[in-house]
Design a protein that fits this description.
two-stranded parallel sheet, single chain, alpha/beta
Length: 309
């Protein structure tokens, strides 16, 4: 039997300060973390060697062991869910306790649907896998250890992914990656999954069930320039760069539009069967995602159909 958690925190004015601080802090950590090597270089270049050295020391300290602080996770989670006019998390069925891969859609710019589950108190037994560049970036690495401990996250490279699957630990992943973020549009619901089969292959080989999650409203949080897909996907695949040009709030483009609603739906699991191959398992998963989308699109004001790129 499924369950639903509905969050409604009153007027935007009542929740403005704490929610904007929580979301803004998380996004700032993400951006500054990736930019930290350049920041050190710029400080030295512009004649501030002491500041540059201090920042370099702080960056190195981010990789030292630190205790997990559930209070930090709780504060960020409360801020994220109170940022929007309304939001909810629906589980169509209880998640299996092991050998489960939670596939999160869509990617979006900052993946607020992902954040709902990442900081949620009921999914702390899952390991969330994401971009190696982001995982190893210093400030994000520190934030992850403070909020989810050492086992709560891992890089999404093949070696790490296979190693974790051999343990049977439940995992979460955004299979669409930067390509899915690149094609995001407030006017259409899109996922990049037609030829993205690696996650299904490893799930098939290690006997993992696939569980789709869809964040309705994620695509409306930021505007994104459309077109130029060939060049932008080349930046994704060849250089591992997100080729998204986002614009959120008019006064702060890197903050999502807070008057939107985000509704996360976690679907039911499908498992590989002996009479199918990887292609068949992947195709069945695609149909499963589309069926999940169709069940809730009317309720949450989504597009008439889900575009699968």
């Amino acid at each position: 039997m499924g369950s639903i958690q509905v969050f409604n925190h009153g007027s935007q004015e009542q929740r403005f300060l704490t929610s904007h601080l929580a979301v803004g802090f998380t996004i700032a950590v993400w951006i500054l973390s990736l930019a930290s090597p350049a920041l050190v270089a710029l400080l030295f270049y512009f004649g501030h060697p002491l500041l540059g050295a201090a920042l370099a020391v702080f960056i190195l300290s981010c990789y030292m062991p630190v205790p997990e602080l559930p209070l930090v996770r709780s504060l960020i989670y409360s801020g994220v869910i109170s940022y929007f006019t309304s939001c909810s998390v629906t589980y169509e069925a209880p998640l299996p306790s092991e050998k489960t891969l939670l596939a999160i859609h869509p990617h979006g710019f900052v993946c607020l649907g992902w954040a709902f589950l990442f900081f949620a108190p009921d999914l702390t037994h899952f390991t969330f896998c994401y971009s190696s560049a982001l995982y190893w970036s210093p400030f994000m690495h520190l934030l992850v250890k403070l909020t989810r401990g050492r086992s709560g996250c891992a890089p999404a490279d093949k070696a790490s992914f296979v190693r974790l699957m051999k343990t049977g630990r439940p995992l979460a992943l955004i299979p669409g990656g930067f390509e899915e973020a690149t094609i995001s549009s407030p006017a259409a619901d899109r996922i990049f999954l037609k030829h993205r089969k690696g996650f299904a292959k490893y799930a098939f080989q290690h006997g993992y069930s696939l569980v789709p999650m869809y964040a309705f409203g994620e695509n409306r949080l930021f505007a994104n320039m459309q077109g130029g897909w060939k060049l932008r996907h080349m930046l994704n695949s060849k250089f591992g760069l997100p080729a998204i040009l986002p614009w959120g709030l008019w006064w702060c483009p890197f903050l999502p539009r807070s008057r939107e609603s985000v509704h996360v739906v976690v679907g039911t699991a499908i498992s590989p069967t002996p009479d199918e191959d990887v292609d068949g398992f992947h195709a069945r998963y695609l149909r499963h995602v589309e069926a999940l989308y169709d069940r809730y699109k009317g309720q949450y004001g989504a597009s008439p159909s889900l575009e699968v790129w």
